[in-house]
Queue: 2 jobs
Job 1
Amino acid sequence: MYVYNEVDQRVVDERVEQYRDQTRRYLAGELAEDAFLPLRLQNGLYVQRFAPMLRVAVPYGLMNTTQFRKLAYIARFYDKGYVHFTTRQNVQYNWPELETVPDILTELASVQMHAIQTSGNCIRNTTTDPFAGVIREEETDPRPWCEIIRQWSTLHPEFAFLPRKFKIAVTSNPNIDRAAVQFHDIGLHVRINEAGETGFRVMVGGGLGRTPVIGTTICEFLPWQHLLTYLDAILRVYNRYGRRDNKYKARIKILVKAMGIDAFREKVENEWAFIKDGPATLTQKEVQRVSEHFIDPVREPLSDNPQELATALASDSNFNNWYQRNVQQHKAPGYAAVTITLKNTGAAPGDISATQMDQVAVLADEYSFGELRSTHEQNLVLSDVRQDKLFELWKQLTEYRLATPNAGLLPDMIVCPGGDFCALANAKSLPLADAIQRRFDDLDYLHDLGDLSLNISGCMNACAHHHIGNIGILGVDKKGEEFYQVMLGGSAGHDASLGKIIGPSFSQENIPDVIEKILTVYLEQRVDGESFLSAYRRLGLSTFKEVVYARPAA
Amino acid sequence: MHAQQHEILVASEMDENLLILEADSELEDIESQLVEKDDVAIRFQAFADGRGFSLARLLRERLNYTGKLRAIGDFLPDQMHYLARCGFDSFSLPEGAKAETAEKCLKAFSEAYQISWDRKEPLFRRL
């Protein structure tokens, strides 16, 4: 993974000192509340319902065990002993004290981490496929490009006060898009063309929130040298012409819709013409320098499906269940990528205790070259595990209560913190997630259901991306009472689609029944092992609607 | 790299021959006016409105304006480092802001990744 040089470290250290002084001036009354607000937000500090919340950047989800242990230490020393992983692969602390945040940032800087631009109307953490660099079907490794974008976006002088937040995601996987790039302000698909040249399909104006929009291709193939100048051109057009009169109309998707993609593209190209081939054009040397941080670890020459694995799979059905769901094929023979789902009934989705983090760090050192990844689905990944060690690893994960075999299944939900923590939420999302996990706890049933994404957002800001869950649930407020809207058919992948609302909303206690009815329609009507999403697309919303809203027979 | 001098003024010290631009000014409209005035100012209506940052860079880098460029209106001392990088070299401090804080804010960072008015090459070409 990327290792800071002297300048990278200095930039982060100076940001810590700058923030320390800003906090000092705020506490001394020299900096007004409204002036401190954007400054603390640009360093990831929100003021939530009960306490401040600090969001720490995990650039494109990559961490080493030193960093992971530091995150656990901060959780223990400065917070309540756990951390929360977000859909942007970041980490959140729900209970830090405003006064101690500069010290937390110093701790983070000591392991090459920071909270820069994790909130505020600026360019946020770039995200990617959690299996980047280890999957066979990938065209190329997106991580060096993510790091190049991280550096370009860090403290960008022109784009720190945009009309609204700005999110970029990168994938290079032609089959499965695990980064939901079509739902980002800018989505990049790194491609290799027929001539063997690297470039980007650039998509713009995707997003969720109150106005969900699938991104539009603005450039089919942007040669790699031009990545940063092209991003500068898009951002400049957005910064100058994006709406600033209404925060709900301020994202780039609204500008692209209002102008139309052709007029928007023309404006970007006009801007780009002036800076294209200028000094910000990327060099082979720089791409090479960054790429050298992402070379493969020294793996053993092994073969797939070793005897140890076959024996364990045949003898232990629990291990087999976990293997079926939580183990991912790897580009290197004899290796696998392992998903540790943070979706255990009784704990909030995405949460992990500091004790478990220390345990996972030991396992990552032992089995996966000392590296970890966080995922858009709020899980963790060990990306380089020998297949003949999987059984051994699984036994230890089981002991630490981290081997729930539910990756990609219904209980592997994406859920926002909701009304329990967030001041914006209309409804709670965590108790609902818990009720669903308790209702659907039969493993055979869940494995039979197969791939199914369930996303729960506590309000229309859509932090849990409910529009792109196969089943999406949205908390709404009806005359002071919490209700939940259900939508079906969303997909975050290359076949991106937005869910459709099934009908009138439900109270919390009815939701598990409603989901059960929806799932029964699927199980009864699916053909040839089609997924829930495929069945939905074939059957249509009305088939599900009729059953969900059917009056009980008299 | 902060070779150029930055001028910090308190709000009352405004000189006369100043072309004041609003954040939504278009370059076509500015070009003809540039020759008539000595100095240019960009007015910030609200510190969260970042359009002035882009306008400054366009003035400097597109129209090759080399005269004095002053930030006026509602901006924060904490934004001055970014403002300077975008091409501002004069700051008419908002009421209540201390010159001492402003000086310190200007020097918040000693390096930067991107190209800007004060750095003609990105870090990766200077390494």
Job 2
Amino acid sequence: MATYNLKINGKMHETDADPSTPLLWVLREHLDMVGTKFGCGLAQCGACTVHLDDVATRSCVLPVSQVGNHEITTIEGLSEKGDHPVQKAWVEHDVAQCGYCQAGQIMTAAAFLKKNPNPSDEDIAAAMDGNICRCGTYLRIRAAVKSAAKS
Amino acid sequence: MSTNNSLNRRKFIKVSALTGGGMLLSFNLLTGCKPSVSEAAELPKEWFQFNGYLKIGDNGLITLMSPNPEIGQNVKTSMPMMVAEELDVNWKKVIVEQAPLNTDLYKPMQLAGGSNSISASWQTMRTAGATAREMLKQAAANEWKVPVSEIETIDGKLIHKASGKSADYGEFASAASKLTVPEKVALKKPKDFKIIGTSRKNVDGQKIATGKPLFGLDYKEEGMLIAMIVHPPAFGLQLKESDVSAIKSMPGIADAFFIDVYPDSKNKQWCDVAAFTKLLAVVGKSTWQVMQAKKTFKPETEPIKASSEKVNVFGTVTEVITPAGFENTTTHKQQMASISPKQVKTVRKDGDPEAAFKKASVIIERSYSCPFLAHNAMEPMNFFANVKDGQATLVGPVQTPSFMEKSVSDRLGIPLDKVEVKMTRMGGGFGRRLYGHFLVEAALISQKMKAPVKLIYTREDDMTNGVYRPAYYATYRAALDENKNLIAFHVKAGGIPENALMANRYPAGAVENYLAEEWAIPTNISVGAFRAPGSNFIAGAEQSFLDEVAEAMGKDPIEMRLELFEKAKSNPVGKNNDYNADRYAGVLKLVKEKSEWSKTQPGISRGVAAYFCHDSYVAHVFDISIKNNKPVIEKVTTAVDCGIVVNPDAATNLSEGAVTDAVGHAMFSGMTFTNGVPDQSNFDKYRMIRNSEAPKKIETHFVKNEIDPTGMGEPSGPPAIGALANALYKATGKRYYVQPFMIENQPIHS
């Protein structure tokens, strides 16, 4: 066990955890932030995506000991009022079916648009390829990313 | 239109006796389950309950209960819309809550499956709204001393034009809720619908986009422990109890012990399918610690013995045979391709198919197959259980809560009325969550620990645990005469351990000489329903085959199908044809028009297919191109006839998803086995469709009619596989018989 001070969504959080514990489980179980989802534990599905500084990162394979001073943003902190352009576009396009993967999709999309504010359709599809949606909402995900880019 | 109130007085009795306590409880069941209406809306000082589906606040705010489990099919929005329609309220003033499980109150069944949530509750839910509306009108008539027939309702207001009087529902909610429940109420005509048929956004859309706790995996209670299970590494094996003291001493571990999930099968229900019934349970403080501990366990196993058990499938006791041994996908393929006539059973025969095949000029014979599939809902199987003081409380994602309540009661020996199952939103199901062995497991673990526990499956536990889509196989034969007329049709469908034959569906009824046969090979790999069971294979096979038959007949594939429908309509063969040829032809005509089927575009290859399942009709035209040796689905044009569409944009979303889902599985996915061991256990090896592989565009068109709604969650998937295969043929000159169509890293032209 070790003590970690993590900056998450702009606030410092102190937690005791085994150094190998993935950030995902620290968020979900130690800090009660369950918006970040468990899907595969292998960085293959993207449900656990958070931002490490501005980079979309798979929290299910990132040991808490490696977070260091990097700032973490989760879906809960992407915007204060739930009105980040990507979140708004998700609601507007009524993207979700079951909704389980969508927090990860939104985090991937938000980090991507920060790097590439004017993406082509191909750029969007390629950027979102790491996030599985079992319900098959891929078309709406692309449409929502596109309208978020425009806004 | 008027209807007898199908809900009798007893079921409509006031809430105090019915759901009062449960209602309050469910209201704050999860921190994320706050009202769905804008957070700024002011809550009423008092609610008045009219029936199990609705209550009205003194300020006119409406709470509607959504009875069925929400699995992503959007029933939490679409079902309350039906109540709101008849109640005549402003949708913006509606709060939706997940109803508690109450099988006496919510009929016909609180279940997510078979695409029948909307159709089965079409009368019930509208009647619930209309009943309350009539009670409000009566209360106003009493107060205003005017005839009730002169009172109109609109947008949550009661209006008496002659006197100029009007009032919000809130003003009369108290008085109305105390009136006698009318036995008979008139329901609106479809032309008067204001909410049904308009697109309303997912009531949980904002919560999903902001990561609120909605799912079973997000549920937490004070003092809750985390539990995981270990099952044998292969089908055909069972765990032997062994020393687990080393696991118990690992950090954060509270206990480790073996559980017998279904030791006695005498009361087994259809939804109690479980490949592995003896499991190791590992319980601890945190998921990560339990995961680490469980990895160190080296299970001792022994081969299973062949067995048979009796299972209650909706009142019919069926025998399920489980053979011993370790199975292999290569052997399965050989077995399926070499079925002997002795194993085959005739299911339907019209005319004299043998004679017709003998005199045929041309006989076309083709075989199709598909592998086992894992459901792979994105939220792995999980459930919360708290068993104490002779009571069991379970919270989580399950498609069959009312059935699993019985299974838990039976296994734990706790009376049914002491078992409570609360439904959370589900991170997908696709049929996997019809089979709730994980509720029984969670309850057994909680009982042993005397503590609340949340059972969590890792992805590997989930993917290698069975309850797969069966492996299917079908051989089709068609006989053409010298004028290239179709004179006989033969389907012989099989699978492991069940077949996908739909003997009374098209083209049964349209061909003079018709033969449908079936066979099955038992397996110890457990299987279950997978989105559009059976249809998810047989539609693609049949529609690909008909494409070849049309080609051999020298006919356009749409025209050929339409001619057969004409025959089925004007002079049907046989009696039990379970489709409506007019509606079937209708979707083909619509897709033909909307896709501009007669036009050709350079670089685009097109395929068409249509199918009927879950009482709905769907046709697709796929436009594909080949880029870098890979197929690109440029556009899908879809025509759907599912009767009245309650929530069109949500239905469109479901249809798009079903197409993408079906295409993905047909192109890429499969579970294979080596000596009983699943070759895939996570998304590194199990190939799921990715964003860039989904269709670029899907255009969905609904047939406009006033027929009562039919299924929507499943019917769009099955025909997509046929349309894809037919388009691939046009693009590559190759027919696709074996799923998955795309073998990784292998160019499409090879």
